[in-house]
Amino acid sequence: MEIGRFMEQYIKNPKTVGAIAPSSDKLACRMIEDIDFLNATYIVEYGPGTGVFTEKILDKKKDSTIFIAIEYNMDFYNILKDKFRDRTNFILVNDSAENLKKYLHKYNIDKLDYIVSGLPFASLPQDMSKKILSVTKEILKDKGEFITFQYTLFKMKLFRKHFDRIKTKKVLLNLPPAYVLKCKN
What we know:
Blueprint: H1 2-12, H2 14-17, H3 25-32, E1 42-46, H4 52-60, E2 66-71, H5 74-83, E3 90-94, H6 100-106, E4 112-117, H7 126-139, E5 140-150, H8 156-162, E6 165-171, E7 178-184
Parallel strand pairs: 1-2, 1-4, 2-3, 4-5
Antiparallel strand pairs: 5-7, 6-7
Helix pairs in contact: 3-4
InterPro entries: KsgA/Erm, SAM-dependent_MTases_sf
GO molecular function: methyltransferase activity; RNA binding
Protein name: SAM-dependent methyltransferase
């Protein structure tokens, strides 16, 4: 059912959805494998879609960890709202990741431990990508990490403009195969 809705949203909004199917379990595991859930206080997810990464993070985070998911697509937002309505310290926002600082201010959060992203930087407008990455770098703690995935590496130059250290791993068991980028200042 989620695959059908995902495909429908991709057809309607290919620039902001960026994939024809939700991420695989293998990709989700690779995305969150290095998160220190024991010590993370604040985690944000950009573009959770139907919640593949969201569910893994919610299952592993401490109850006291604040987790904000920011989803632009209203249909995906409604799926997530329904799916995770009873989760502790989970804040779901219907807006663009460009505006995250507004919500951090609202919840009195200064810096983040981790930002996990499902955003399709390859298809987002260049100005939007730059703004999101600038905000991301600014709001991460000194040892914070930005974790994203991309289907190609042609936007690496953009990521390198914002982050000094980037580790890349390829995940073949995903449709299509993807690269996980773990970025630090």
